[in-house]
Structure formats: structure tokens, C-alpha cells
Amino acid sequence: MNGFTILSSADVANQPNERPFTVRKPNGSDQEVIVEITPEARESAARMTTGATVDEDIFTSQAEVFLSDFIWNDGDVPRNGRLVLKRIDRSLLEQEKGKR
Q1: Which of 36, 37, 83, 90 stands 20 to 30 A from 15 (CA)?
Q2: What are 80-97's pLDDT values in tens digits?
Q3: Is pLDDT at 69 greater than 90 in this prediction?
Q4: Sheet hosting strand 18-24, strand order edge to edge
Q5: Domain tally for the chain?
């Protein structure tokens, strides 16, 4: 992916609405990026699943795809090391639900 590699993520961060990722840049250096999951994104997921409990792994998957898309489109990690996930992708949510 443009020479960037998402090396790791943690399903549970120090903050429940954050997902930390380590990204290796093309020059070999690593940078931590935090994806914040907003209350609006959580509410959106709950509406899409008709009130069923949303597995936290879904938010981690959504955050990783969001980060990957950002890197692909911008050609770099976010300068401040943070992204804010404001909405959930319905198709990704359906894919994750289908895996379970």
C-alpha cells in the first residue's frame, strides 16, 4: 500500500473509543496513529444492527480500513497522528457480521 504497512493494532486501547495502530513508512520508520471512534459512529453502527450489541472487533476493523484508505488517498499518515472515524461503512459492517 504505497510502501506503507500497518503493522499492528490493539482491539482494546487505553481509551475505549480509540484504536492505536503502528504504521511502517516507506523509509522504514514507524509511527503510531490513533483512530478515534466518535459516539456518532457507535450510534450509527447500533442503528444499522437494529439495536443488537455491536462487537468491538467491528470498530477495530472499521478503524483499520479507515486508516488504510487515508494512507492510500493522502500518500502519508496523518501529520498529527490522529484520525476521527465519524461514520461506519455499512458494507464493511455487513462483512464483519457475516464472518461471525
Answers
A1: 90
A2: 999 999 988 877 777 666
A3: yes
A4: 5-9, 18-24, 30-37, 82-85
A5: 1
